Structures are given as C-alpha cells and as structure tokens.
Amino acid sequence: MLNMIAIMRKELRSYFASPVAYVVIAAFLVMAGVFFAILVRAQAGTVEASLDIVFGNVTVVLLVVAPALTMRLLAEEQKSGTIEVLLTAPVQDWEVVVGKYLASVVLFLVPVALTLVYPAVLLHYANPDVGPMIGGYLGLILFGSAFLAVGVLASSLAQNQVVAALLAVAILIAMWLMGAFAGSARPPVSDILNYLSIIGHYSDFSRGLVDTRDIVYYLSVIAIALFLAIRSLETRRWT
Amino acid sequence: MIEVENLTKYYGTHPAIEDVTFTVNKGEIVGFLGPNGAGKTTTMRILTSFLPPSSGSARVAGFDVFQDSLESRRHIGYMPETVPLYPEMTVYEYLDFFGQLRRVPRRGQRITAVAEMCGLEDMIDARIGRLSKGYRQRVGLAQALLHDPDVLILDEPTVGLDPRQIIEVRQLIKSLAGEHTVILSTHILPEVSMVCQRVLIINEGRIVAEDTPDRLKASLQGVDRVHLEVRRPTAEIVGRLQKIPGVQAVQDRGDGVYEIECAPNTDHREEIAATVIQGGWGLLEMRQVSMSLEEIFLKLTTSDAQEQE
Hints:
The structure holds 2 protein chains of 2 kinds.
Chain A: H1 2-17, H2 19-43, H3 52-80, H4 82-87, H5 93-114, H6 117-125, H7 130-157, H8 161-182, H9 187-196, H10 203-206, H11 212-236
Chain B: E1 2-11, E2 14-24, E3 29-33, H1 40-47, E4 55-60, E5 63-64, H2 69-74, E6 76-79, H3 91-101, H4 107-117, H5 133-145, E7 151-155, H6 163-176, E8 181-186, H7 189-195, E9 198-203, E10 206-211, H8 213-218, E11 224-230, H9 237-242, E12 247-254, E13 257-262, H10 269-279, E14 283-289, H11 293-308
Parallel strand pairs in B: 3-8, 3-9, 6-7, 7-8
Antiparallel strand pairs in B: 1-2, 1-4, 4-5, 9-10, 11-13, 11-14, 12-13
Helix pairs in contact in B: 4-5
C-alpha cells in the first residue's frame, strides 16, 4: 500500500515535470469550454438547461486524452530499463501497475474538477435538473477511468510510447464500436455486443439514471485491463 | 550469504547459463569475470529476482530468490549494467523514491550520508537527465547502497568512468567488504585483482574457474614460463632446451629471445642456465614470468570455445 502511494506520487511529479500534464489539462478544458459555450447558445431562451451534450462530446475528447496520459507509464520504464531497478526493489508488480494507474486517474480528475464551473454557472443563471448532472459526472469519471485502465494495459504491452498510445486508441475505438456492430447482428450476438459497448453504458448516466449494471461494467473493464497489465509485466520477464 | 545451485536459464532453446553453482560467504567481494554474452548479467538478474530461472535454485541471505523473492530483494542492493535512471527527477528525489520503497529509516539523513559516500553532495538537487555518465553511475551506486543491504550486486560498476573516478569507486567497494557481501561483474581484469578476494570466470554460460586472483595467476591452469635471451642464437637451441626434463615447449621469438613453458610449480632455471652455458650461446637474460590474469582468462575462455566447436 505504501509502495503504491510512493509510486503514484512519483508518477504525478513526473507528469508535472514534463509538458504532458499541462497540455492535456489545457486541451481538455478548451474542448469542454467550447462544448459548454455551444450548449449555452443552443439552449438560450429555452426552458432546457442541462449538460447532457457537454458530457456526450467530452467522451470523444477522452479517446485522445486518456492514451496521452497513460502511454508513458509502463512503456518508458521498459524502454529505458528503469523497470529493472523498480522491480528488483521489494515491490510487487500490482503495486507498480495500480500506483501508476491511480496517478493517471488523479491527473484526469484535475480538469474534470475544474469543469465544475459550468454546472455552477448553470445553477446560478438557470434552474437545471441536478440529478443528471451528478449522474453525468459520475459516469464521466467511471468512463474516463476505464479508458485510462485500457491505456495502462496498452502501455504495458509496448516499449514505445507512440505505439502504446496508438494501441490504446485502437482498443478503445473497437470497444466503442461494439454497439454499432450490434446493429447488424442477430439477438444473442447483438446483446453481447451491446453489453460490451463502452459507450452504450454511458448514455444512462447523463440522463440521471445510475444503474448498478453500468457501474459494474466500468469497474469490470478497469479490473480486467489492470489484471492483464500486471500479467503482461510478469510474462515479459518470462520469455 | 549467496548460494547458487545448478542454475540454468534458457532463452527459447538457447541456454544463457547452464548448471551454474557457486557460493559467496558473508563479507566477501567476488568478481564475476567473463566475455560479453557469457551469462554474467543473466545470473545477476536471477539473483535479484528480475528473471526467473529455468531450473536450479538461488538463495540470498537464506531466502529463495524465486519463492521468497520479496524477502530476498530486501537484502539486495542492485545496480544494473546500463544504470537506468529517471531523467526528470533530481538526485534527491530519486533516492527519496527508492528510500520510500525500501522503507529506509531516517530517510533524509541516510540520503545525505550515502550521497556523501558516493561524492554526490554537490549534485543532490541536479536533474539526473543533466548529469554526466560518471555522476549517473554514482547515483546508481547510491541507490544500491541506500538501504545498507547485506548483499550488493553490481553489474559493471566502473564502466564509463574516468580513471580517477574508477579508483574512487574501487576504493568505495573495497571499503564495503566485511559487513557487506559484494558480487561485481567486470571484463576489466586488473580490476578483479585489485578489488576482489575471489574470482568466478564464466564463459558460454558455464563457470570455468573459481579461485583467488593470486592463486589463479600463480598456478591454477598453471604453466610457469621462463623468458630467455641469448647473445648468439643458433638453430639447435630449441631442440636442446626441449630435452630438459620438465620443459613442455619452447618458442623462438627471434633476436635470441625464447619463451620456455615449464610444468606447473617447477623451477628449471638452473638446468636452463647450465644448458645455455654449455652451448656457449652467451646468456644475456633469464627470468620467470607468471601468466597474467588476461592470459589465464583467454586460455580458459578460448579453449573452452574451441572444445564446443
């Protein structure tokens, strides 16, 4: 546990030692701000006041942001050989993987927390429904965390950061499109594909519906991706 | 302190090390000597639990490096060959990070002490990415020493250092003997005789010799040689010298210089001198030369390679 925290803190410090953290946070905020501005203009004069569209659009941004945050985490250690120093210390593989993952989640929460300005603005000037906003944020955090876990897995499989990022984007797009494939499949297969679709579980949240099945889905994606990342770190040494 | 039994590691079907067995006692400094690709790094990676062995076992401080790897790793300080470091961290941050992972008590004090030991006081707040090779090497060494480990495993600790730094690092390693057990790999032979109490020579994954540097030099695969120089060399000298009992080979080096190989631990200088004087060739110089560690090393590693071919 202590090791995990030490690794997480070290990774957070590394994020801020390079431009990555600043660029990612800035890009995320700019995009979210644009979406919010569009939303406000579109809803001006209507009775509606919700962040629904913002949440929907931000998920697309995460397709790039999440791999950018995670690509370095394990790939760079394996490329530079520092993994040898790290893993010959009395540290367990899961502490390394989970510690690094948590660092990326914490970093992701920074811009998410900063976007809380938007619901504050809405609450001040309009009378929005609070439920969908809370649901939307919960969904965004779960959705982003699942993306980051997939990114960590991709980073464990590659020794090159760019390869790790591209691999993460490829896996995420495949998981995203599961729902689209479902349209052209028959019931048993289409149900499975719909269940696996990473975006399919997201829409309920921004409508204010918090379904345990959706929460379980995202937590499962996180658990499986991190488990595979730990295994990949182990087996890399076996061959 | 370190017990290695029948250790074997295959990469695919190719054996990196085969049936390696040795022990290192507490407080000893042992040199691991061998050409590139002989299996030094592989052995060290198994000892530090970075790689699992294909078969055989290794124990460090009484703990199996595979079954009890977490416990055995606590007792080891390791510096890998290329000294990988995090370039974005400062020296202090780097040592502090590993100090946390190693649960070093009174961390700040200990980091200062180790930095001083390794000559890093002035660089403590410098970014590692900006350090020279020599300083990086010291950071790696400081990391290995940080938790005052029982066993130090150093892969090529003096590579890339300037001569003055090499001397400093060697002195530092020597000063660790007694309390710490040290295994260091090197391909610099004089380093072994200067620093190590015992040498393991490894070639093509097998240990081909094991002894103190002095004993290896003196006799192990021992051939004692006599260097001879005469004023008036003639064609018959080689034949006449070879007739002396105990003389194994005579080589004509030209200009009246001969290298005479004698049976191990024998001294034939008297008979050689008598023969030269009888022949009236004019004795100019005669002295015994022992084989250098380089020659022993080459002899051991090349003859072994030829046998396998």
